[in-house]
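Below is how a single chain appears once it has passed through the pipeline. First comes the sequence as given, then the structure the pipeline wrote out for it. We keep one example in the README because the format questions we get most often are answered faster by looking than by reading.
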Amino acid sequence: MTGRDLDSRRRPDGATLTIAAVLAGLGVLLIWEGGRIPEKGGYAGIGSGDLPVFVGAGLVLLGLAHAVKALRGQSQDQDIVATADRHLAMPVLMIVAGLFLQLILLKPLGFSIATGLLFACTTAAFGKRNLALTLPIGLVFALVVYGVFDGLLQLKLPAGFPETLIFGS
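Resulting structure:
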């Protein structure tokens, strides 16, 4: 082992501690704000403030797990660290391009097409560049999400041709 390896095992990982603090802080904020929402729990006693409290508790637990990992000095595998050290701008740019496409195309083409393109750009950023496969999969996932929001939750997302064809107006 080199001296650097021994030093990294003795000291807590600062990046992981920072992530732990941010996760825990966001969790506490969600718990705080969720507690401020007036309870209108129906017959089940679950109100609109319960979901933020639940998500906040999960974030606090994730923050604690990150803190424990940082304090123990557990580091990632050397292959992962070596890959993370290299700056790979292209995958980030592909995801940003997908988000930009979704933002621009959401209104004129509808939710499923815009989100299907976002899915295809994101999968391409992660190495799956077969658009003939990823684009239809993204469209199907987006249509399922649209169906859940439209049918079950009664929330309206921007509808395009596929949504109007399948779910009506």
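Helices lie at 3-10, 14-36, 50-72, 78-85, 89-109, 111-125, 131-152, 161-167.

See the next section for the split statistics.
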